[in-house]
Design a protein that fits this description.
By secondary structure, the protein is an alpha/beta fold. It has 9 helices and 8 strands. The protein is globular and about 50 Å long. The mean pLDDT is about 95. Bound molecules: adenosine-5'-triphosphate and the ligand Nc1ccn([C@H]2C[C@H](O)[C@@H](COP(=O)(O)O)O2)c(=O)n1. It is an enzyme of class 2 (transferase).
Length: about 230
């Protein structure tokens, strides 16, 4: 038996497979799952819905504490609400995707969301897989397992493009998708506060040539090894 519930941090750029991998690992190991990108999207959705200028950091900071964001951590049915409204669909629109990097760069937003993330992780009874951009570096620097997923932009764009074509008529083509994800990664890596970065003690896995199932199996092995290494109570 583990001394404490295992905490797993999975970071990386957009489209590297963080969500798909984290959900599957958490489901198979009976752990919780937290999509931190969904939280930043939720606060961005609230700003847009309330007429806040998302390109004005002071305006965003002034109201960052207002929305109540609640994340459900069942990996088989993750949920996200803002002030009681289910926003799982609306946070995936192009408008939110286009604004989320600006909103998530505001320090007051990061402080607020980081606090939520730490509380959720600390209260997860069976451990949790938390995925995002700064989990291993800033949110949970003491995580038991830290993984940083990468993949080349072509592979990531092809994955995203296929996904968008399946769900959105008139979705952008491969080149536009590639440009958009490179632009978002640059904004997320270039911000001053808690940028997208690999923690020094994270293990990097390039998923370009791997199937999703291969990535999931590799992560499960790493997590199980970490669980075995924990001191017995
Ligand atoms: N190794 C893989 N091989 C092929 N397709 C993959 C692989 N990993 C993930 N995918 C697919 O790529 C798409 C993007 O994956 P996912 O949403 O998990 O990435 P992400 O890193 O969480 O992205 P974001 O940060 O933008 O939310 C999904 O359609 C997923 O099924
Ligand atoms: N830990 C995190 C998670 C996400 N973000 C920001 C930056 C991303 O572009 C955006 C959306 O994330 P996605 O849904 O694509 O995973 O949220 C962040 O700053 N820190």
């Amino acid at each position: 038996m583990s001394a404490h519930p295992v905490i797993v941090a999975i970071d990386g750029p957009s489209g590297t497979g963080k969500s798909s991998t984290s959900k599957a690992v958490a489901a198979r190991l009976g752990m919780g799952y937290l999509d931190t990108g969904a939280q930043y999207r939720a606060i961005t959705w609230w700003m847009l819905s309330n007429g806040v200028d998302v390109n004005d950091p002071a305006a965003v900071a002034a109201v960052a504490g207002k929305p109540e964001i609640i994340s459900g951590t069942d990996p088989l049915a993750p949920t996200i609400t803002v002030d009681g409204t289910d926003v799982a669909g609306p946070i995936r629109t192009a408008e939110v995707t286009g604004a989320v990097s600006a909103v998530s760069a505001v320090p007051a937003v990061r402080t607020r969301i980081t606090e939520l993330q730490r509380t959720i992780a600390a209260e997860a009874p069976a451990g949790i897989v938390v995925e995002g951009r700064d989990i291993g570096t800033t949110v949970l620097p003491g995580a038991d397992v830290k993984i940083f997923l990468t993949a080349d932009p072509e592979a990531r764009a092809a994955r995203r493009s296929g996904e968008l074509r399946g769900t959105a008529p008139g979705a952008p083509d491969l080149a536009a998708t590639r440009e958009a994800l490179i632009k978002r990664d640059a904004a997320d890596s270039g911000r001053t506060t808690s940028p997208l970065a690999k923690a020094d003690d994270a293990t990097e896995l390039d998923t370009t040539e791997l199937t999703l199932e291969q990535v999931i199996s590799w992560v499960i092995t790493v997590v199980e090894d970490a669980g075995r290494k924990q001191p017995r109570p």
